[in-house]
Amino acid sequence: MSAPLDASKLVIHKTTTPKEKLPNDKLVFGKTFTDHMLEIEWTAQAGWGTPTISPYHKLSLDPSTVVLHYAFELFEGMKAYRDTDNNIRTFRGDKNMDRMNKSADRIALPTFDGEELMKLIDQFLLVDESFVPQGAGYSLYLRPTMIGTTESLGVGTPDKALLYVIASPVGPYYGTGFKPVSLEATDYAVRAWPGGVGNRKLGANYAPCVRPQLEAAKRGYQQNLWLFGEEGYITEVGTMNAFFVFKNADGTKELATAPLDGTILEGVTRDSILELTRERLPKNEWVVSERKFTIGEVEERAAKGELIEAFGAGTAAVVSPIKSIGWKGKEIEVPLAAGDSGELTAQVAEWIRKIQYGEEQYKNWSRVAQ
Amino acid sequence: MSAPLDASKLVIHKTTTPKEKLPNDKLVFGKTFTDHMLEIEWTAQAGWGTPTISPYHKLSLDPSTVVLHYAFELFEGMKAYRDTDNNIRTFRGDKNMDRMNKSADRIALPTFDGEELMKLIDQFLLVDESFVPQGAGYSLYLRPTMIGTTESLGVGTPDKALLYVIASPVGPYYGTGFKPVSLEATDYAVRAWPGGVGNRKLGANYAPCVRPQLEAAKRGYQQNLWLFGEEGYITEVGTMNAFFVFKNADGTKELATAPLDGTILEGVTRDSILELTRERLPKNEWVVSERKFTIGEVEERAAKGELIEAFGAGTAAVVSPIKSIGWKGKEIEVPLAAGDSGELTAQVAEWIRKIQYGEEQYKNWSRVAQ
Magnesium among the record's keywords (chains A, B) (predicted)? Predict the structure, then answer.
């Protein structure tokens, strides 16, 4: 009998030594954490164990644990927001749960009922409620993580795992307003490939990406732009999905992002932007496309004045405006019609912010922890 | 001032509670470990710290540690052998040190002087000398590992790392003699890609490979064979390099393995087999090739009776004979002229065994711990 994940079994041990809270202006992304953490152990034999919220603590791992050798690890990034009624809200957590299960399945780690983990995250948020910062752009970053904990150097299916969630209070990605970034198009390294795992949120996709980012930084760029294939297809920006806005000769406009062909992370922000723009942009003026397009097309259309704006999209920054792309020794300049971003960039950021902070109800996208 | 790795600073704390040793027939690969472990901490600020051999112990890691989220992890596989004079020998450890540094560099972890780590491994082997089993095929498996230990969810260059070595007494991969394996050629998943990290011994390359191995196992195969591209180039076998032996129309023979094009792990056993066969096989009868070849060529030449043998090569098994390959619903049968393997397979296994166990001196390939 392998037990399913069951939120009703939750056990809570509260800390007796609460941490001091940092003021909003001292918050650094992912550096400080709340008083508690949520953990659920899994074994192949017994299934999911008792969910526990207990004081934030170190993990004790045997040096042979498979997570340290074979990258049996995956994670999610989510945020919790404080609304004007002091409710704590999460944004489309069901999408994160679906993706987390797909990630787990891809590397032979256990899957679980996503709604059960969402219920546990709600309880975790209520216990550490006081760490959710107040103020526009402030939130509590949630990091659901799963690691294989089998203690053996044999490469095989882990028979033990730990699912845990930690939380870090964070400020707006850019102090106030946007800070548009310069990108370097990377042509000597690839992030993902067909038949690989680039569409799953696995640890394995991250460490190999740091070196190209360092190389870009050395040459004065803030991020790198991932290309694929001889054609130079645009795939992602650093660790975000990439969106480009083009103007057509007939005056219509196109919002374009790479399709989910197995090499693209299935971003929740990406999906939200596609849905909101498809619903809200006037259909006689706009086309929203998931299609392949190349750095060559971007360069060519920029030269013709048809590149209007570009941005990265992800949980951390929501949207991150792009101001230029270095490519083969040339700079492709991206207009910033709204000052620090393009107009659509600013618009989608605001649409999403309102839903995240509960100022607007949109379908079931915002969930109140209770 | 960033300190280099310095073996002369070694500090040794010996255990007061030595473990009981298992009899040879109870040894399971990577399941039990020696009394001690070797550790060296690194920080960006101070460089490499004091190397320490201390009782085998759990690692205490903050749940935000980057190794658990972004796969900042790499390892090596080496073996130590007891020779007939009771010396403890390692095999071509300098190659492992070179590869470990290349792996570290690729994911922005610190590099080090490989000879210093080899000196430390020698001392570790002398401390745990009694765990090196006696007998042909028995050895002490060494697992040098490096993990990023920065406690932060920001994706960037780790500013802290831990290099550690643990050791597990192991028996022969196959009880006695060879056990030839059946492979399933995998065409729906891809292990590595040009511009990726398939040529580095990173944790990131391993977890994604387990699912295809499980799929192969479900259909009754022992391992999977990794192909690349529409052409179906043969790249690796499970977690080993792949060798094929073909007979030509003129009676000459060819030993072929995939070239180091960035998608192939730079195996130490692979390199040793290439060097020994190039030196020892009669040049008028044999060609040793590093070249691309496809599953189609293997199928075609098997049909013509020109496929003579095939094997995987790696530290764990040294060589692993292949008896058949499932491909598009058909079975490509591989002859086993020497009973459980091909003749060259048995020959190279014996050549390498003699050097590993110190029965034969060959260049500097075997190093006595002292």
Answer: no
